[in-house]
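Cross-posted from the bioinformatics board.
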Amino acid sequence: MPLLSDVARAAGVSKATASRALSGAEGVSPATRERVERIAAELGFRASGAARRLATGKTRTIGVLTPSVDRWYFGSVLHGIAHAADIHEHDVLLYDLGAFGHGGHEKFERFMRRGEVDGLITITWSLVGGDLSRLAELGIPVATVGEPTPHTRSFSLDDDAAGTQAAEHLVALGHTDLLHIASETEVQPFDASSSDRRKRAFEAVSARHGLRMRPVRTVPTSLEGAHAVARELLDRPDRPTGIVAGTDEVALGVVLAAHQLRIRVPEELSVIGVDDVPAATAFGLTTIRQDPAQHGEDVVDWIMAALAEPRGAEPDRSHTAYAPELVVRSSTAPPA
Amino acid sequence: MPLLSDVARAAGVSKATASRALSGAEGVSPATRERVERIAAELGFRASGAARRLATGKTRTIGVLTPSVDRWYFGSVLHGIAHAADIHEHDVLLYDLGAFGHGGHEKFERFMRRGEVDGLITITWSLVGGDLSRLAELGIPVATVGEPTPHTRSFSLDDDAAGTQAAEHLVALGHTDLLHIASETEVQPFDASSSDRRKRAFEAVSARHGLRMRPVRTVPTSLEGAHAVARELLDRPDRPTGIVAGTDEVALGVVLAAHQLRIRVPEELSVIGVDDVPAATAFGLTTIRQDPAQHGEDVVDWIMAALAEPRGAEPDRSHTAYAPELVVRSSTAPPA
DNA sequence: CTGAAAGCGCTTACAG
DNA sequence: CTGAAAGCGCTTACAG
């Protein structure tokens, strides 16, 4: 593995000049720059990241704290992050905290002890407010994707609008007897979660239109969890004509249960979700679309911009709310 | 941020001794060690990773090259990797290559240029043989999970056994007219892919039992892809009595299509998959289980062991095949 | 058991 | 435009 000094010697310049030529710094004659670059390429020179880090104080790495990587939302955000980070020539260091109470906090502490990154992204639900504010004091740009938070810059779907759109869609079709199935929030104080925002929006729509008020059901955030509850719920004579699910996973569990119970969707039951997961198409699920990969790209772009700003500037803690988009498929129709 | 020299001064020892005390090296009196540790804790000392890297040549980081993070298999492997890496106090650097031909190769090259890791894991399908052998020459432990490969140490489900078990299960139930739906392999030479191994195993079982020979169908690796094909396939009068799907995603697409076509599963159609994804339970899918998170943990353990070995030892390129496990649910039954 | 010193491989004021 | 030198913050032979 050739060193910078090898390149410098072969090019007949000092290490300083070689370094400048390679880094693209100005104040190097075009001729030397070209020569150094050529020789570096010939020798297959790669600057030592460790040395560069030590000298510059920059890691060219961004950290991601996430409670999960094997669920659609988190995976998609991560995908967007990785893509954008790559474009900015930054690496991504992954901290999979796992479920809270299952060692997640311990892993968080380990990150605080060892993590060396220029910027940090937390994908929501992984952290309680106290931890989030500790991160905000790290002196590096920190942002959250998935939920609004007062502690850091944040990006998320406009959950109020999403919940409203979903309920209004069914109301517009003529439904008056709706049930909301919310998906469980594990960590956040419930009243701050996207789940709760969607729920409240549903309740507001119900109240506004004078719909029958059924108590909201809460299920584990998974197709299985929703499915188990839906099997029991849909098998009753007084089932609603429409279900507004907090997420597509929940909605899919409901549709599956309906299929198994031979309840026709949408003729006998309308179902709407939020997310637009890939499987939604095959299920014909009407849903409110969001694009987590885009959120991931945006949060990285913000971090890069924050990194470019002069140190000590007042930290930006604003929130970006993405507008939801109704996607009508075949799981919703006027009530029979 | 306190430095090692601050700790040393406060403890009244040299930096050398402070370093030894903190790193747990031997040859430090218990008294000094304890004092140094206490003072380091009081001061909130965290050693600079960059400086340590430069001095030791170790990054305490392992790299993961994956074609995707938002699909169950990859996400689960990654989860296992992150967990095990954390236990070994190593960081994980994520390279999401994305689909091949969509900039994946370019991202791979960028990794080759900048990636500084002590060990490397590639999750299959992301790399062609040529790239894999370049990695193997990197001088660090390299392993692949998801498919056997001659270029590196590898870990994967025993696909032959999985394919055999799936087909034999339906044969044992009395089926004689089966169709295999394989899931598409994007990158690997097809004859090396797990998809192809499962397919061949299916064909061998068919031949052995003299079953009707239907040409194998290949569909995109997704519920949607399988669903589209299955809708058309199942709507014909001469449909098979059982379907052996290459993966659960494909199997789920088939079951969904059956539901929509009002074909009863398992009465009119048996379906079996491979994976045991979380949604399999709700669908009642009979499947062949594998545990990718475990594979991820194992591969990290192997990397750690390889790291502990003396440099220059002959690289281990053996393969670990995990035994499949049949999980019978309600999607399979004797033919009508 | 402990310390002084060299070294890891870059970058960047400072001079010229 | 270029170079000599200091410095980033640790670890680790080498001496004692």
